[in-house]
């Protein structure tokens, strides 16, 4: 029951940014498939940024979980503030890029001139929003690590409701507001992200059990640990997400319709990944706390139990994706050809959702142990040495087009799962010690 109580709120909370991106995609979908392509490309770019820089929150999550289990509360707060300092440093170049880089980013990916013209302003607003996302994930990493997953859930609900209302109002110019089109979706996202960030900051400073209002001095040793662990986790996630930029570029090369179908599928699947991410986060928290308590055998059994419970959630979801593929596609567009391509991808995806979710759970368990170096190396190796070349060969050399792209992606997911589960079985649990 504890696993479920931690995981369900986590899934809801983590769905915040994902659902906000999907809502924007649905709302602007009525404006045309070029708008779908523009929003979809932006979502992939933000996914890559989150993979690299949002990793600070994941590092804080596992470091605080271990020290919370060891009842070293001062360290919990110190690591959180260190994450804030690091995020502040990284936000500066992202803010600068938000004003000067969007047009070049679209062109590098290979988007058409139409999509570049449509999406540049939207991407600028999303980059500014991302700076708030980074700060929010640091605070969320701390909050979840101390066992509270409901407060992040409330934050996510507030953000989603606000984004839905504002997107509809600002995109179409309702209730006397100006009709901003795709820019309205960008402004809605930014406002919702700011509100969510304010919520978690207030919560952090109101925690009574830990000295959160005592701002610690900068400590080089702790900064080095947070930077190092964040870099490992970020590069691990970047192994997949950066490869997905090339994946998107392949789709753009096939054509705007194929790109639209790919972006719809990627955004829909990002929602399907949430149970795996949620259970993986729960594994990080509970395993990290058990290691902090020096109860390593219980930590290992906890990971196995979470994997079993996660499978029970993922199987029904895969069935829904198979039988409701067309209905899901129609939420985003009424273009017959785009729907046809999207349905094929989603039906194929239903067979791989279970494995994909489970690899995320095992990755979370390995993160709780502190195996971030292995996760990083494996993800980068399989992503760039295996996934990208295989996908290119199937798509263009074998002339399989969109189908070849997605087959390459699913084979990659299976390879990740196998690599992670082998590592989990080989861990010498009796020798694991708390990090930092």
What is the secondary structure topology, with strand pairs?
Elements: H1 2-29, H2 33-53, H3 55-69, H4 73-100, H5 102-109, H6 113-145, H7 150-172, H8 182-206, H9 220-254, H10 256-272, H11 274-292, H12 296-323, H13 325-330, H14 336-349, H15 353-369, H16 372-397, H17 401-426
Describe the structure.
- The chain has one domain (2-431).
- Helices cover 85% and strands 0% of the residues.
- The protein contains 17 helices and no strands.
- It is globular, with a radius of gyration of 21 Å.
- The two termini are 31 Å apart.
Describe the structure concisely for a colleague:
The chain is an all-alpha fold and about 425 residues long.
**Low-confidence sequence ranges:** none
As a percent range, the share of helical residues equals: over 70%
The secondary structure category is mainly alpha
Radius of gyration: 21 Å
Give the overall silhouette.
globular
Distance between the termini: 31 Å
- Count of discrete alpha- or pi-helical segments spanning 4 or more residues: 17
DSSP strand (E) fraction? under 5%
